[in-house]
Amino acid sequence: MRNPLTDLSPMRWRLLAFVPMAAALVLLVMGSTETDMHRRSELFILANVSVSVGIIAQGAYLVVAKKRTWPGLSVVIAGAVVLGFGLYVLLRTLKV
pTM of the predicted model, to two decimals? Predict the structure, then answer.
């Protein structure tokens, strides 16, 4: 069975990695103009989550396309830790 990620072109890999980074940049700019501190912190936390998704996508690119297993896995694990912490803080901030 073929892995669907191996069929992606390099441009699609770049989009998978950098679209979350661009979204994080937009969230950071929106958060810096916000005057309410609670809303600002929510936007910064969402930017953190978005960056960690981009980091996980870059790690997946290293593992799947470049066949660099150990560096890719370490990037994916670090990104997953940051994502988990970001989601935990976001849920605590929203009091869900």
Answer: 0.80
